[in-house]
Amino acid sequence: AFMSKALLTMEGLGHQLHQEIDIVGSFEPHLRRLVIERADPGEIARRMRGEWADTMRLVENLPQKVHRIINHLEKGEISVRFEGTHRLEKVLVQSSNRLTMGVVLGALIMGSSVMIAARIPPLLFGLSALGIISFLFSGFVGLRLLLDIRRERK
Question: N- to C-terminal Cα distance for the chain?
Answer without folding.
Answer: 35
